[in-house]
Amino acid sequence: MAPEVLPKPQMRGLLAKRLRFHMVTAFVLSLGVAALYKFGVADKRKKAYADFYRNYDAMKDFEEMRKAGIFQSVK
Amino acid sequence: MMLPKAAWSLLLRKGGRGRRGMHSSEGTARGGGKTPPYTNCYAQRHYPMPEEPFCTELNAEQQALKEKEKGSWTLLTHAEKVAPPYSHSMNGNTQPDLQDFKGFLVGKVYRLQFNETFAEMNRRSNEWKTVMGYVFFFFGFAALVIWWQRVYMFPPKPITLTDEWKAKQLQRMLDMKVNPVQGLASRWDYEKKQWKK
Q1: Which of A31-45, B57-71, B90-104 bottoms out in mean pLDDT, i.e. has the lowest?
Q2: Residue A49 structural domain
Q3: Hey, is the C-beta of A65 within 8 angstroms of any chain B C-beta?
Q4: Searching chain A, which residue's CA lies closest to the CA of residue B190?
Q5: How distant is the Cα of B175 from the closest Cα of chain A, in angstroms?
Q6: Mean pLDDT, to the nearest integer, of B143-164?
Q7: A61 contacts in B (CB within 8 Å)?
Q8: How confident is the model at residue B126, as a pLDDT?
Q9: Is A45 on the interface with B (CB under 8 A)?
Q10: Which biological processes are named by the entry's GO terms (chain A) (predicted)?
């Protein structure tokens, strides 16, 4: 019974191949995650704070809180 | 499930030991990772080169082959490399029949040293389904036990966890405007007195 001849597997450069794949993937993934964080979290938060404080009136806020009765020093 | 049913039933009946295990005095030799004298029996993926060869008691034909193996391997015949060492003899060192199905490309010399090829040794199994089944079953059982406990055993809630206290607590937090930029108070509509949509 003659066995079929398998194709010769890759004998050399296995580490280099693995390293290249994983370096590229790691690079792409890290940059991707960093970009997503910058836009999705950091910039969004900065904008939220800017929008909140653009027209913020501290005294008006204080009066609302005082009327709600949460302070002990001033009623 | 690469093996035919006959081979599987044989393997399961022998408990994975092969005929060697039934006659040896070592008891159940279940492969590497156990305490001596079991450690040297079967190769595993994490233990690929055991100290003891698989077949230690060789008949004359096998001993002759071992002698031949000490020389140049180019002198080994095609048959010795390719034919399986199929043997029905009742000494303790024959292979389980699964080799007939998978071992036809692996020769006698290999089979004397090793029980299974890498492909056989690393075969998948369906054990994970059993494991997950047990895990989920005990999750459910634990849930039932805790439910019973909640109905019959738990004391009354502390006052701070009752619904009315929690409602008053939430109203106070909204009055204080807790986290007004991105958090709780930013989700509350103070004009309409309801949560923002």
Answers
A1: B90-104
A2: 16-68
A3: yes
A4: A64
A5: 6
A6: 96
A7: 177
A8: 95
A9: yes
A10: mitochondrial electron transport, cytochrome c to oxygen
How would DSSP label each residue in A6-66? PPPPP-S-HHHHHHHHHHHHHHHHHHHHHHHHIIIIIHHHHHHHHHHHHT--HHHHHHHHH
**What confidence score (pLDDT) does residue B51 get?**
81
Total domains in chain A come to 1
| pLDDT (average), residues B120-135 | 93
Rounded to whole angstroms, how far apart are CA atoms B3 and B175?
Answer: 70
**Amino acid letter, B102:** K
Residue A33 within any structural domain of the chain: yes
Contact list, A41 vs chain B (CB under 8 Å): none
Å from A22 to nearest chain B CA?
Answer: 24
Say whether B188 sits in a helix, a strand or coil: strand
Average pLDDT, chain B: 75
Average pLDDT over residues B59-84: 74
- pLDDT of residue B39 exceeding 60, the answer is no
Partners of B82 on chain A (C-beta within 8 Å) are: 1, 3
Q: Is A57 a domain residue?
A: yes
- Burial zone of A37 (CB within 10 Å; 0-12 exposed, 13-18 middle, 19+ buried): exposed
More reliable by pLDDT, B63 or B100: B63
Any domain includes A73: no
Q: In this structure, what CATH number is given to the domain that contains residue A40?
A: 4.10.93.10
Q: Is residue A75 part of a domain?
A: no
